[in-house]
Specification:
69 residues, mainly alpha, 0% strand, DNA-directed DNA polymerase activity, Pyridoxamine 5-phosphate oxidase, DNA binding
Length: 69
Amino acid sequence: MSINLSLLPADEKNRIELDKQASFLVWKLKQAKAGPEVIDAQLSKLIDESERECFVQSIDKYKRVMGVS
């Protein structure tokens, strides 16, 4: 079963994008290509509280999955 992501509502697309960004930033931390300040910088750009919460949850999820403390 395939899902066309372009048909999703804008808020759901945004959540997917935030999840992708979180995954990439945690990967950069794991590879020692960036420090924790990159996460703080991205978090400071998010104004909407629900987006911030979603981003923090994704960061926590990927830290667990990738074994980053």
